[in-house]
Sequence to fold (339 residues):
Amino acid sequence: MQEPQKNISLKTLNTFGIDVSAELFSSFNTEEELKYLIELNKNEKKEVLILGGGSNILFTKNPEQWVWQNCIKGIEVISDSSNEVLLKVGAGENWHNFVLYCVDKNWGGIENLSLIPGCVGAGPMQNIGAYGAELKDTCHAVECIERKTGQSKTFTAQECEFGYRESIFKQKVKDQYVITYVYFKLSKNAKVNTQYGSIQQELDAMQIAEPTLKDVSNAVINIRQSKLPNPSELGNAGSFFKNPVISEAKFKSLKEKFPQIISYPAANGNVKLAAGWLIEQCGLKGFRQNNVGVHSKQALVIVNYGNSKGSEIWELSEKVIQTVKDTFDVELEREVNIY
Ligand code: EPU
Fold:
């Protein structure tokens, strides 16, 4: 395996396209290579930053940590019965390619998650979700290596404590493990899930009455392409903010003032608000400040129009949070990891 490299630009390794440089950079293709890095670091004793597809990260400065890029590949069938298949997938596999692979085999459960940027290993971190599906619906287990010891540990899906854009890997065991493989249980006779309004609309527009997994995947791809900027054309990291969850009482008072407010039921009797709507109501949709802006078609997304610095994106996100707070007294939380 290659020796650690010095002063490596990360511009092409983060979907915001921020030009920061890693003082020390390595990538690993196997668990053995990862364990070797862990051994090396017993002398170096450096903080480590694990990078996957770089699609949910904002660099506001050159990382001081040793950056390790996870490139573990492979899709392996672990068991195969008449109605389901259990897969072991390398954390460094591209997420969308994995979805397409499964859709082509007619294995159902992740087709609604088509075209999400990033790698498979990032999926469990924040329980990726879109159009009525979440990773937790099909994730069976997550295999990891402990960063300090190099020992393997497998978390069952239940142990992952998945929630809305949440998991144990962002909370209790933050920065303690490297995800190496994710196990998925997919269905061989899956029913398509077209509950999410815009999927049904898109399928109607496509004139498809009895959609296959491929049709649903295509519908999701069409919707995403119509609203979300393609990171290879316009730097971004998908939703920059989470949809905020508030109490029923607070929702009632907001609803009186803003009858059009968009909401969904959330766990424990709480209410989830559409942050994109809140931001749009503040007049910030399409707002541009030098080289950064709020996307004109989806206000949850912040975009880099050119060579913007991470700090400029951070400042714009502060402005958005403050304006929403002043207007609705609701605190937006960033979904993207900030370094
Ligand atoms: N809306 C607005 N203005 C906007 C954006 C949205 O009024 O600028 C309204 C829409 O009209 C709709 C509602 O807000 O009534 C929800 O919008 P949308 O369906 O676009 O979804 P979202 O809540 O804005 C979430 C996820 C997306 C995911 C979509 C579809 C989060 C933080 N974001 O966005 O995930 O693709 O639902 O399921 O939960 C991501 O995480 O990076 C991401 C793109």
Observations:
- The mean pLDDT is 96.
- The pocket of EPU is lined by residues 130-131, 227-228, 238-239, 242-243, 262, 274, 276-277, 280, 285, 298-300, 335 (CB under 6 Å).
- The chain has three domains: 5-70, 75-143+174-226, 229-338.
- The CA atoms of residues 110 and 297 lie 25 Å apart.
